[in-house]
Amino acid sequence: MENITIKIISDTKELPTFPQCNFFHSTELFTIFERSPAHTPFMVFAIGNDGRIIAHLLTVMRRRGSFFPPYLYTHAHIYGEGEYEEGCDRAALFNMMLLAITRKLRYRLCLYIEISDMSHKMFGYKQLRRAGYFPVQWMEIHQSLHSMPPEQRLSAKMRKLIRKGMKKGVVTHETEDECEIRAFYKIMRGYNLSKFRRFTPPYEWFVELAHSESGRVFITTYKGKVIGGCACVYSGGDAYVWYAASLRKSYPRVRPDVLTIWHAISYAHQCGYAHIRFMDVGLPFSRNPLREFILKFGGKPVSTYRWFRFSLSWVNRLLSWFSL
Prior knowledge:
With 324 residues, this protein is of the alpha+beta class. The protein has helices at 27-34, 90-107, 125-130, 156-167, 178-193, 203-210, 256-270, 289-295, 313-323; strands at 5-9, 39-47, 53-65, 72-79, 83-84, 112-116, 134-144, 171-174, 215-222, 225-235, 238-246, 275-278, 300-310. Strands 1, 2, 3, 4, 5, 6, 7, 8, 9, 10, 11, 12 and 13 form a 13-stranded mixed beta sheet that branches. Helix 4 crosses helix 7. The protein is globular, with a radius of gyration of 20 Å.
């Protein structure tokens, strides 16, 4: 496209005023990332010849450590394809912003880039392939909240588990208390420690999200002890469960995992959101315990792609070949 300028900003003070509806590409999330340790956000702007911003895309680069080489590295994540003015060529603008941020991240020695949560499975397929990205089949779960009350989607067994947990005194509530958030964070860290490639944001990220306008942190307690929780965001009339964890094996009789997810669904329904989306239930294996658990609440599995690009060209070619 002619007369389009691409600009990348990594400081909140330099962000211009621009229209935004999608939380995942908003100034609000940019600020949350900026205030979180080991996170560096980048906002990519497509600017017309009249100086008007016609598209933008938020990317976050994270510094990470691992038990295996390279031990310390950075990776970047993009949630969705960004936001665009009506009537513009979304595919062309996405391609321009994608190439610009890919070059920027390679210059910053980012090990790999991950793109998830596209609005349509095939959006940007050609552009991503040409830029060296390869797709991996992934799974999400979407549940409608407007067609019928979520209680009617539950099986008799799930209703019994929820009633049993509540009767025993399990309570889930929204919190901004930093002590409660820290207790949930420790559960989240322990839950993801044994999970391959599962990423846990720093404690400060959960605190920032709890104090934001579009985010909520819910914690589940039993006899005064935090035994679970989840972090949710709300955007475009939908609710999103971003992170969730519980001490399910330590408290099997009260099922904190069931009560936590049920509260997130009930809260979204009471607030009038049309759908609740579980952003990551992993690879679409024939047996996936997390997916099977979430589906018991009445949602539907949605097959999608996650796109990856490694800075090491031979690694990228090898993994791209395996993904075909």
